[in-house]
Amino acid sequence: MSSSSAPQPDVPKRVLFVVTAADYWTLKDGTRHPSGYWGEELAMPHKLFSEAGWDITLATPGGQAPTLDRLSMNWTAGTLNKRNEIADYLLSIKPQLDHPSTLDTVNPDDYDLVFYPGGHGPMEDLAYDEVSGALLAHRLESGKPLALLCHAPAAALAAKKPDGSWPFKGYKMTGLSNTEERLNTFGWKAKWYLEDRLRKEGADYQKGALPLRPFVVVDRNLYTGQNPASSEQLAKRLIADLG
């Protein structure tokens, strides 16, 4: 007499968050503008993925605890209720933020999703980080989901194929626009603009009709969000597609 096997419990999705370790952004006049990761861009996707039952690992270059950009918590960054929600959530995951994995010790193939939140920090470190660049090139080639939010597509600039070409060339993608960058008073002092660099390298850069509004682009396994306001829309799209 045959018997059917018991149903197996669903295995939770695994997500790797790659977060900047930079705590400043060097402007073209040489000044170091205090920076780091943008609160909403880490907190809200992390919260939504956690609520979906997904397991999350944080990793940074050198395993350094990431720095919250204080500007991401001021009055220009959203309503008081929203900022309080973000602050409370970041506090709830403080042990994880304080003890991230070291980026060069993680294997992206172990994860269902690789997710890069933004902030100006990636313009300082991940845009030039060879370990991150190799991870991104491998991940894109693998066909497994990869998501980059706001300034995080700057990290893609460090990616190279074995022949030296840019693996993201021809991909539809978004990221913080020139217009949005210039809304920051210090944005006018940037050494370079993300939109310009993505276009120059050969990305099919796209942006929403209005600045500071949610806008998400999906091309094959690459998911990108334009700005902080895109954080939740990007996360919800990923949950729907990977669920």
Automatic annotation (TrEMBL):
Residues 41-239 form the DJ-1/PfpI domain. SUPFAM superfamilies: Class I glutamine amidotransferase-like. Signal peptide: none annotated. This is Protein/nucleic acid deglycase HchA.
